[in-house]
UniProtKB/TrEMBL annotation:
Chain spans, region Disordered: 1-22, 87-117
InterPro entries documented for this protein: Methyltransf_11, SAM-dependent_MTases_sf
Residues covered by the Methyltransferase type domain: 53-90
GO molecular function: S-adenosylmethionine-dependent methyltransferase activity
Protein known as: Methyltransferase type 11 domain-containing protein
Organism, scientific name: Streptomyces roseolilacinus
Amino acid sequence: MLVQHHPHPASAPPAADAPRRARDWAEIQERMLVPLYEAVYEHLEVGTGTRLLGLGCGSGLALLMAATRGARVTGVDTDRARVELARERLLPDPEPGPHGSPGGPRPEPRLLCGTPDTAADPAGSAYNLVTAFQPVGCTAGDSDGLVPALTAAVPTAERGSAVVLAGWGPPERCATTAVFRVAGRLAERLRGHGAWRPARRDDLEEVAARAGLRPDGSGRVSCPFGYADTDSAVRGLLSTGLFDAAVAACDQATVEKEIAEALHPHVLSDGTVWMPNVFRYLVARIP
């Protein structure tokens, strides 16, 4: 997941605690968007004929889900710690064959730490699906890096291929909005660099237009954020990178305390945290 002002989409910017934060993302936060991934894959009938390029692939859960449907997948991200976790998920040690020899050949995902212009298939095959599941529409300038990333990815895909963009739904339908407002308030002195802003109805269409893509349908998906307890919720939300500007403006302990307080209305009687949210996806086409 993933939403800062970068020159290309990344799950979260590098940090001193990048490995721990990447693990929090993979173990706590990433699964919150599973309904979004499933809805998109169902809508586009992802399967054995799909050659997918995932921009900002993070720790690879969306790629894994596509691969289990038979898709050939490539993922690219600038967060090295998350790419390493994706490799653990998608590139397990081969099962030994007879007498300890490696198992038979199998198609393997490609997982790259870098920018989209490094993702061209070395065999020359063009992609027919590009995904950018990192949601936009939550912080100021969070789509600025997406346009050049899409522009760089387009030459690697076939004409007419689908490009999927994802974004936050209306603030009134996203309970997590109130928590993200905390980030905006704490980052006030760094205005314009990660400050919260409400999602707009045409965020995704604007990105598609700037990247020269043709909109071809959209949908909304319920993606509730559920956590075992407040501590898990704080760790998961921090792993998104959405609070980095707030941490830079004050300090980690203050941000953690403010997030925990903002979560109080969403803590259930058993101590779990539950926040209903709606996400939106746009399917665009490469002309």
